[in-house]
Amino acid sequence: MLRLDRYVWLNFHIDANRINSRRELEHMNRIEKWADDDVIFLEMSQAAQKEAVAGGDPQREQKAYSYGATESSLSSPHERRLWREIEKILFPAGTTTASQRQDVEIVFNAIKYDAILITDDGASKKQPGGILGNRDRLRRLGVVVMRDEEAVRMVEALIRKRDDLARKLSQEMGEVLPSWVGKD
CA distances (Å), 138 to each of 86, 142, 144, 166, in order? Predict the structure, then answer.
């Protein structure tokens, strides 16, 4: 049997604003399905989890706690510098609220754990800055930030490549295709 991996080697962190507790976010539904099917890896930082449960909505709380959560410990001088650089990019005058510090922590965790951050924070008329509004500057620090619909397009492209490779190898080797080809 042809031995290929279904996983497309993408690790995503989601921000609190992408908690899909009522399953109304179309793109997040697809992302969550891919995570359930081991096509991608999906988790969130403890800061995003804390932010997501702050309102006391039991359904949202259950959804937030269904994700694995990463810790934000600053364990080196490099990480402390990185934290300050993120803070300068997102909040040039410094952080003054817990919410602002959580945004810095959420971005920091995505970098620390080599994850692509999915958010809906910023780059809008109401909030031109925010995380998305600063994505080009954040990319220079090593983090990719995107909206959930952009993440879907990225995963779809990798799935197409993965499935094309599986079909090619199956044909060349005379092996049966893995059952997941064409189903993600």
Answer: 7, 7, 7, 35
Q: Per-residue confidence at 127, pLDDT binned at 50, 70, 90?
A: low
Task: Spell out the residues 6+ positions from residue 7 whose beta carbon is closer than 8 angstroms to its own.
Answer: 38, 39, 40, 41
What is the rounded distance in angstroms from the CA atom of residue 97 to the CA atom of residue 128? 19
CATH assignment of the domain containing 140: 3.40.50.1010
pLDDT digits (tens, 9 = 90+) for 157-178: 999 999 999 999 999 999 999 9
155 inside domain: yes
111: in domain: yes
Q: Is 75 within a domain? A: yes
> 106 lies in a domain?
yes
